[in-house]
Amino acid sequence: MSTWTDDELSRIERADELRIAPLRRDGSPRSPIPIWVVREGDELYVRSFRGRGGAWFRTAQSRHEGHISAGGVDRDVTFVDEADPAVNERIDSAYRTKYRSYSDAYVDPMVADPARGSTLRLVPR
């Protein structure tokens, strides 16, 4: 697997939203949808607002591959489940910091248990 460049990390981190298109079981991409993305160190993370039941998340779990675009960066990625509580605490903080200008009605669900259970690390391919 490859790694993110500093430029890619910075550009995606500055983007308000990321467009994600997970691959279906047959290898075809799902239509891209906008979601929030955060950076923690040299890694990028996303969560499903609806938790593990979210449609795009369920599709992502079928092949663990897809395509993302944000900040002028387009990459094929692998989705890696993130269950480490310490990492999830830092991701919570990143969501609160990056999206603090949004209503708590949007931010609070992103740091609640259902969304935390859908945390995925984006690994470039």
UniProtKB/TrEMBL annotation:
Pfam families xrefs: DUF2255 (PF10012)
InterPro entries from the UniProt entry: UCP028498
Recorded superkingdom: Bacteria
Protein name in UniProt: DUF2255 family protein
Species of provenance: Streptomyces hainanensis
